[in-house]
Amino acid sequence: MADLSPIDLQKALKGADYPAAKDDLVSVAKSNGADDSLVRKLSETGTKRFDGPNEVQKAVFGNE
After folding, report:
1. Helix pair angle (36-43, 53-61), 10° resolution
2. d(Cα 36, Cα 54) in Å, to the nearest integer?
3. How far, in Å, CA of 36 to CA of 51, rounded?
């Protein structure tokens, strides 16, 4: 996957419960078959806990 999109992130985090720890979201993404680059980007965010999907999107993609 060359370019990651917010839709890819939403699919990867389907079924996640919030608030959620970053490690929990990485596990959900892996179990949903997320692309390795998306999993890596998620795990490299500086945020340790997310209150909802919008926070995850901002952490992964910035202010796009």
Report:
1. 100
2. 21
3. 23
